[in-house]
Amino acid sequence: MYLKKIITENFQSYYDKNSISIEKKLNLILGTIGSGKSKLFNAFYWNFFGDIYKYQDGWISISLSNFLSVFNKKILKDAEINETVKAKVVLQIYNEKSYIVSRSIEIRKIDDKEPYVESSWKYIKEELIVSFDNADGNRVNIENYDAQNYINKKMLPKEISKYIWFQGETL
C-alpha cells in the first residue's frame, strides 16, 4: 500500500484546502518547528483511526467533547454565527486497487463569545467514507461504521498502528 495524495481542509494547522502529492519513491517532508509536519501525520492517522496525537495528552479519540481538536483555529475564529464549517482529510491510496478514504466533521457556530470551546458549536456530523472500484468497474462507497471495519480488516489494522507513529515521527 502506498499513499498517493493527501488533501486537508481546515484540519489543524492547515487552513482552507491543501493538497500534497506523494511519489512512489522517497519523499521528505521538511520544515521548521511548528510548520505542520506532525499535523500531516495526524491527518493520516485521524483519517484511518479517528484519533489524533496531542503533545500533552498523547493519543485521543475525537468525540463530542473534543471535536474542535481537528479544526484549524482561523476557521473557528472567522466563522459567523450559524455558519457551518468542515474539517476534512482525504487520502488517495493504492493497494492493489485505488482507494479514496475521506473523514470529515461538520459543525455550526451557535455562540460568538468563545470560538475555541465546544459549547460555542453545534456538532452536526462526522463522516467516514472508503471508496474504490469493484471488479465490475463500479464505484463502491462504504460509509461510517462499515468503512471503519473495512479499514481495520482489509486496509490497515489498528494493531499495527503503534508501528506507524511515535510522537510525530514514523518508525
Short overview:
The chain is of the alpha+beta class and 171 residues long.
Any chance you could write out the topology, listing elements then pairs?
Elements: E1 2-11, E2 14-21, H1 37-49, E3 51-54, E4 58-61, H2 73-78, E5 84-94, E6 98-109, E7 121-133, E8 139-143, H3 144-155
Antiparallel strand pairs: 1-2, 1-5, 3-4, 5-6, 6-7, 7-8
What does this protein structure show overall?
This protein is an alpha+beta fold and 171 residues long. Helix content is 18%, strand content 39%. It has helices spanning 37-49, 73-78, 144-155; strands at 2-11, 14-21, 51-54, 58-61, 84-94, 98-109, 121-133, 139-143. It has a 6-stranded antiparallel beta sheet with strand order 2-1-5-6-7-8. A two-stranded antiparallel ribbon has the order 3-4. The model has no long low-confidence stretch (mean pLDDT 89).
Treating each run of at least 4 consecutive H or I residues as one helix, how many helices?
3
**Which residue ranges are poorly predicted, with pLDDT under 50 across at least 5 consecutive positions?**
none
Given helix and strand content, the structural type is alpha+beta
Share in β-strands: 35-45%
Distance between the termini: 16 Å
**Rg from alpha-carbon coordinates:** 16 Å
Secondary-structure element order, N to C: EEHEEHEEEEH
Tell the overall outline.
globular
Summarize the main sheet. Answer: 6 strands, antiparallel
Average residue-wise pLDDT? 89
The percent of residues in helical segments reads 10-25%
The spatial strand order of the largest sheet comes to 2-1-5-6-7-8
Kindly state the number of beta strands.
Answer: 8
